[in-house]
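Consider the following assembly input.
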Amino acid sequence: MKEPAQILEVDRLIHEPARLLIVTILSTAEKADFLFLLRETGLTRGNLSTHLSKLEAAGYVEIEKTYRGKLPLTLCSLTSTGQSAFEKYRTQIHQFLKSK
Amino acid sequence: MKEPAQILEVDRLIHEPARLLIVTILSTAEKADFLFLLRETGLTRGNLSTHLSKLEAAGYVEIEKTYRGKLPLTLCSLTSTGQSAFEKYRTQIHQFLKSK
DNA sequence: CAAACTGGTTTTCTTTACAAACTTGTTTTC
DNA sequence: GAAAACAAGTTTGTAAAGAAAACCAGTTTG
């Protein structure tokens, strides 16, 4: 086993395409609400919800539940932990794919 | 849903880290035998076997079973289909990660 | 000739991701 | 003013995927 096998250790929480997309969007927006993410990602509500929960459980995303008028409003933002994990993921993938 | 959602369509057969590693190794070697891949990847024999079968089923890898002396020898090589799928995957990921 | 080793494959177990159904509350409509 | 439709999410059920363990056919070793 040589060093290329590092790819086997990428953070699978971020590697999953749906979550990679979510995290990427969040990395460029201070805060995003649930419906915004829903539109941007094209995920179903159920899947967006569960992916966000996983990211929250990992401490990558902070979820703030409030109201817009009388309707529920869920605000999501990347924590600094999430930000670093994302940066790390990006450099790992880059490193791996760039070599031939 | 905007265009970033393209990432949701990456080829998951290649996206899986273990197979990404296998395919990457095969892309630089004409042919690789099972034990070579085993050492390079650090996967277990069982997992290497099933991942190779999936790649074969997809037509990405060709598996040739022969003998080295009296012992079984399994040779693996990337098909042209596999080569293109890999190239496509790389450019997609690159495209996606570079923006931001 | 029995035990250990080679080079794998198949089976079993757990974890995941997705879809569909459900929930809590709020507007509409009749 | 009750029923129906809608909004914003969550929970649940299921099927597929990945990892580990068990297995297997043949070979070499003691």
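Chain B has a mean pLDDT of 94. Ask yourself how this observation constrains the way the partners meet.
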